[in-house]
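To start, an entry.
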Amino acid sequence: MDQASVRTPLEHRWLIAAAPALFLLLWSAGFPIAKIGLRYATPLALLSIRFALSVAVLLVLCVWRRPVWPRGAQAWLHLAVTGFLVQVMYFGLSYLSLTAGLASTVLALVVSLQPILVGVLAPALVAERVSARKWVGLILGLLGAAGVIVARGRVEVQSLSALLLAVGALGGMTAAMLYEKRFGTRQDPLSANLIQYAIGFVVCAPLSVWFETVHVQWTGTFVAALLYLVIGNSLIAITLLLAMTRAGKVSQVASLFFFVPPGAALMSYAMLGEVLPAPAWWAMAVAIVGVAIATTARS
């Protein structure tokens, strides 16, 4: 038997096993790193620079690798819609909510409601049955995630507008996952990401000029945060998320987001010195059990 034919399935199995953990690590770190970046730039300006750099990197990679481009206007449209929902709705509204005074713990709690929304909407929109067993896991995961956040400190909503921005971000990512599951097709990650980040830049850059007093302070810390947001969040994490969504059931992939608040809490402790109280560890265990129940299929 050809060694390449044996090695490829093993590589695929390794990638499938590692993808959720790598995605959660990168995504969780995005919360404290975004908080650091927003100290030095207005939100839409930060996003515009982030998207511009992502497009520049992807253009170079596309020239070198020459990926296959989407075929047909419909494939381009589906990529553009997903890009708008993730890049503009989710990231844009999340950054705006933090700038409007919403605590990062409240934002993490709001977006962790996503699996519940996906579980409710998936049966009607993508013909996917969500069992009672998954509902139990989803609810346990939500309770555990909320417990981690509450254990870190008081959950305060500074303003209704900031909360509504966070709810909009929640709706954007939920819609993106459902849309990708129903209409998404296998595309080359390079060309697909290039299209989606170009959409993000085309929308956010004019909005930044029109509605913000643009401010960017180019410090070493800001550059480091920006590089992570470009490479870790924009280029790697989003690719993993969309690939996992196309490969598995959307409600199972969505339930991974229950790991994000505990992960963000740990990352915030490491990067910002925010202490994680002892009760949060018990709540984290509840979240992990819930995710395991929701995502582990019966034999």
